[in-house]
TrEMBL record:
This is UbiH/UbiF family hydroxylase. InterPro entries: FAD-bd, FAD/NAD-bd_sf, UbiH/COQ6, UbiH/COQ6_monooxygenase. Keywords: FAD, Flavoprotein, Monooxygenase, Oxidoreductase. Pathway: Cofactor biosynthesis; ubiquinone biosynthesis. It holds the Pfam family FAD_binding_3. Residues 5-350 form the FAD-binding domain.
Amino acid sequence: MRETTDILISGGGVAGLTAAAAFGSAGFRVVCVDPTPPVTRIEDEGADLRTTAFLQPSIPVLQAAGLWDRLAPHAAPLQIMRIIDAGGEYPDPRIVKDFDAADISDQPFGWNLPNWLLRREMVARLADLPDVSFRAGLATTALLTREAEAIATLSDGTRIAARMVIAADGRNSAMREALEIPVKTTRYGQKALAFAVTHPIPHRNVSTEIHRSGGPFTLVPLPDRDGMPCSAIVWMETGPNAERLAALPVAEFEAEMNTRSCHILGPLTLVSRRSLWPIISQIAERMAGERTALMAEAAHVVPPIGAQGLNMSLADLRVLLDLAEADRDAIGSAAMLATYHRKRHWEVQARVTGIDALNRASMMGAQGLRDLRATALNALYSVAPVRKTLMRAGLGVR
């Protein structure tokens, strides 16, 4: 069986679902496929317990996709980004610096949502779009590109001819491999634990990164749970230590977690399972191939620092959508995709490089290096123009 469409999106994670909603809302015919049906309830096996902070520049993309009105009621605003250095001899806060969005904007830095809930609301939005067909449980098994079109074969034997393929199929992208686009991968020997906690002290919409060694311990605001303040935590550690922590009985895990949190929100109580993720940096040599655009983790992967990952993906989508709407007849053309690569690849390289440096600084174990990191934080924060420039850079705005 053969079908035709404007756009085939290979990958139905948060980035792929957002792309399907955005292009469908813009009047393009879209087929989106993913081999794994999305888990849309927190209690179900395989639910993604990580959270995503949508920074300010991502909100117009979500609005254009008809998603923001659905997501906003569930979102926790991120007004202050707090950096704590606890790298002294004992694991106590020795430097606390608040980066306040009010210094540069009348809006919060961003809004935080659980990933499983994003999938629930995005799948519901796609069901409302007549030109979008979301096919969960199907993989793209082959890709043949020509100058005029791309032909993808799905795991049920369906062949789809598309004017443009969007590869949003993750860090091990089969579409990228089919196009023979090389990637550069950096492995840190780190893993991240992701889980949710409740705590007696309200987070007051402050997102906190605590630096000691092994990587940051990050607390991100979530809406209250069962009447208690709630936060999502991403705890980055060396691989063996992360695996040890993931296997600990709950009481022992909570004891270590509370020590690492410096008790800033009072005693933390684990209220979800713990999931474990390997930490890498990765960048594709090109953002596009014939009739195909790479976006999200198919194009770039960064450690979870500063809420950059998915916001870089939505910046990819914003450029693709602008180019497609500027000339609908040229969608997927060599000229359009060359422009997409030119507009995105340099910025992606710069962000991957910057986040790599931040991650290496957060991993420092030697006391002298940790002291140097604390001195640098103090110096950067103390000069107001530098502080504001760093905040704007983190948001991706000038």
